[in-house]
Amino acid sequence: MKKINAIVKLQLPAGKATPAPPVGPALGQHGANIMEFVKQFNAATANMGDAIVPVEITIFSDRSFTFVTKTPPASYLIRKAAGIEKGSQKAGREKAGKITWEQCLAIAKQKMPDMNATDLEAAARMIAGSARSMGLEVTGVPHA
């Protein structure tokens, strides 16, 4: 078992990571091979389009590393589903757009591995709550 030196968490564009900040400084200070990470990350995320991908990099004492990619942030998926650039500046007072319950279910299905919900319905309610806090109107929600 190798000794873990550091765990670095970053959010990078899928397939477009470069050795420039934030990757270079984050990995360089722990002595990891920056170009090797960039090559492996870009290869692993090349088919994810233009999504922002959270990645957790574990750097070992011998300077080797492993990384795990997560699903894109809920806010990114919600904005994409609603077709908007950003949420409302005044959430609760101004609506930035609409999202349907079916879209919440689809996002929840995609995010399920990274969420702490027991079932899809609970995960979808969490996504709907995130959408509301971004100033979006959620339509078609079944009442419990």
From TrEMBL:
The species this protein was found in: Allomeiothermus silvanus (strain ATCC 700542 / DSM 9946 / NBRC 106475 / NCIMB 13440 / VI-R2)
Subunit structure: Part of the ribosomal stalk of the 50S ribosomal subunit. Interacts with L10 and the large rRNA to form the base of the stalk. L10 forms an elongated spine to which L12 dimers bind in a sequential fashion forming a multimeric L10(L12)X complex.
The protein, known as: Large ribosomal subunit protein uL11
HAMAP family: Ribosomal_uL11
Entry GO CC: cytosolic large ribosomal subunit
Similarity comment text for this entry: Belongs to the universal ribosomal protein uL11 family.
UniProt function note: Forms part of the ribosomal stalk which helps the ribosome interact with GTP-bound translation factors.
CDD domains tied to this protein: Ribosomal_L11 (cd00349)
Gene3D superfamilies referenced in this protein's UniProt entry, alphabetically: Ribosomal protein L11, C-terminal domain, Ribosomal protein L11/L12, N-terminal domain
Domain of life: Bacteria
Domain Large ribosomal subunit protein uL11 C-terminal: 70-138
Parts of the chain that traverse the membrane: none
UniProt keywords, alphabetically: Methylation, Ribonucleoprotein, Ribosomal protein, RNA-binding, rRNA-binding
NCBIfam families: L11_bact (TIGR01632)
